């Protein structure tokens, strides 16, 4: 009898287990499930078919919009946390040094080109102006100093060749082109 009751208990427990799983898979009317009927698209009226397709598209797009909103919120939260931490780090001495190194790596070559190009321009224009006023324009050159301070000084007028003036201008234009290449290349 003991053996029979164990077998009966085993059979009943199996029946309860399988019936619970079957009940879990079938919707009950109390859960708001409705009956479904399969109909081909050709048998539906066009207005109803269009309404069903529109509702299907809205549901699909709604899922994508929800997903996009979630991704956007996650990115926003991540970037705000990153910017707060970066700001705190940037206010420390190692952070300032790191930012200088990053700025130098990004803008270093351009910055050095601009500094050296402007310096090259200022020095070059200064040298050109000195040479131009010495050799490129008409000027008076004192010949001798009088022994008496009241006597008038004697001067000689220096007139440069036109070809020398053209050469100075050509050299200055070439200098400007090279300087622009140094600054902007």
Account of the protein in words:
It is built from four helices and two strands, in the order αααββα. The chain is mainly α and 185 residues long. Strands 1-2 form a two-stranded antiparallel sheet. Helix 3 (93-135) runs antiparallel to helix 4. The longest helix is centred in the middle third of the chain and has 45 residues, at 46-90. It is elongated, with a radius of gyration of 47 Å. The mean pLDDT is 81.
What is the total tally of β strands?
2
Strand content: 5-15%
Helix share of residues? over 70%
Rg over CA atoms? 47 Å
Low-confidence parts lasting 5 or more residues at pLDDT below 50? Answer: none
Order of helices and strands: HHHEEH
Largest sheet: 2 strands, antiparallel
Give the strand order, joined by hyphens, for the main sheet. 1-2
pLDDT averaged residue by residue: 81
Kindly name the structural category: mainly alpha
Please count the helical segments: 4
Overall body shape: elongated
Q: Could you give the distance between the termini?
A: 102 Å
Annotation keywords:
73% helix; mainly alpha; elongated; 6% strand
């Amino acid at each position: 009898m003991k053996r029979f009751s164990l077998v009966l208990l085993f059979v009943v427990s199996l029946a309860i287990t399988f019936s619970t799983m079957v009940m879990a898979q079938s919707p009950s009317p109390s859960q708001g499930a409705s009956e479904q009927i399969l109909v081909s698209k050709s048998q539906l009226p066009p207005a109803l078919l269009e309404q069903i397709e529109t509702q299907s598209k809205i549901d699909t797009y709604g899922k994508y919009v929800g997903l996009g909103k979630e991704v956007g919120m996650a990115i926003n939260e991540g970037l705000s946390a990153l910017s707060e931490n970066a700001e705190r780090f940037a206010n420390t001495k190692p952070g300032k040094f790191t930012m200088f190194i990053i700025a130098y790596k990004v803008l270093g070559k351009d910055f050095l080109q601009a500094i050296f190009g402007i310096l090259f321009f200022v020095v070059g224009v200064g040298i050109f102006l000195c040479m131009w006023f010495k050799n490129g324009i008409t000027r008076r050159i004192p010949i001798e100093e009088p022994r008496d301070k009241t006597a008038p000084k004697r001067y000689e007028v220096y007139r440069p060749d036109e070809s020398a003036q053209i050469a100075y201008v050509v050299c200055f234009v070439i200098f400007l082109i090279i300087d622009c290449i140094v600054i902007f290349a």
